[in-house]
Amino acid sequence: MADLSVPTRRMAGLALALLAAGCTTVTQRTAPPPAPASRFSALDLARYGAVESEPFRVPAVSLEDLRPRNLRQFVDYPTSHAPGTLVVDPGSRFLYLVQEGGKALRYGVGVGREGLEFTGTATVQRKAQWPRWTPTPDMIRREPKRYARWSGGMAGGENNPLGARALYLFKDGRDTLYRIHGTNEPDTIGEAVSSGCIRMMNQDVIDLYNRIPKGAKVVVLPA
Fold first, then answer.
1. Does any domain span residue 144?
2. Most CB contacts within 10 A, which of 44, 64, 137, 204?
3. Are 65 and 186 in contact (CB under 8 A)?
4. Are the CB atoms for 88 and 221 separated by under 8 Å?
5. Burial status of residue 213 (CB atoms within 10 A of its CB: 0-12, 13-18, 19 or more)
6. Residue 188 lies in a domain
7. Is 105 among the domain residues?
8. What's the CATH code of the domain at 69?
């Protein structure tokens, strides 16, 4: 059989090179882009997941709708108040549960609109799970279309504006009508929107409820 001519051999070699190059291109794999790092830890996701042990539904909180500063966390908090004291700072939108050693467990909260706040020192005189809610006479007078229909009260449940827990604050033995309570609107945490009370995410108010006894001291700072 006759030898291939030089041009023929060159063409054959080029064809083999192109074929090899084509195979190389086909077998290459582009690595997927790395997943974006989450702003939230696994502990945060667990803390604010759905709560399955309650008599009413407590859905998971969409953390992407919250600022990380509003999540429950231990912080430095040197203070003269004794451990176990609750300190509400409406200006910063935080509630602190004072701990030993200059620390506190800090919760993000929603606060009352200007002119509707309570300030001073009080005591948790009553604790309630899935509390009944009744708007105050002032609330009914200010917004009758919104509140008058509930003048007889609303039973506890997932649509109740007091949420899963409520702490009732008394001063000198009298009800201040000021509450620390849950909310079914977690996107309002960090805002001044309530009718004077302190609202917390349901997951947080359940946690706080389990940590403090009846009779706990509460200090509400001026806004």
1. yes
2. 204
3. yes
4. yes
5. exposed
6. yes
7. yes
8. 2.40.440.10
Check: CB of residue 65 under 8 Å from CB of residue 59: no
Supply the range of the domain harboring residue 64: 42-220
Calpha distance 34→2 (Å, rounded)? 57
In this structure, are residues 186 and 169 in contact, taking their beta carbons and an 8 Å threshold?
no
Cα separation of 89 and 69, whole Å?
A: 14
Does this model's pTM top 0.90? My answer is no
Tens digits of per-residue pLDDT, 14-72?
Answer: 444 433 444 333 444 555 555 455 678 899 999 999 999 999 999 999 988 889 999 99
The answer to whether 95 touches 107, Cβ cutoff 8 Å, is: yes
Q: Are 71 and 202 within 8 A, CB to CB?
A: no
How many domains would you assign to the chain?
1
- The Cα-based distances of 100 to 79, 81, 107, 207, 210 in angstroms read 10, 10, 17, 18, 18
Q: Is residue 123 a contact partner of residue 215, using CB atoms and an 8 Å limit? A: yes
Dump pLDDT digits (tens) for 114-147: 645 789 999 999 999 999 999 888 889 988 998 8
Active site residues: 181, 197
Q: Is residue 2 part of a domain?
A: no
Per the document, the length of the chain is 223
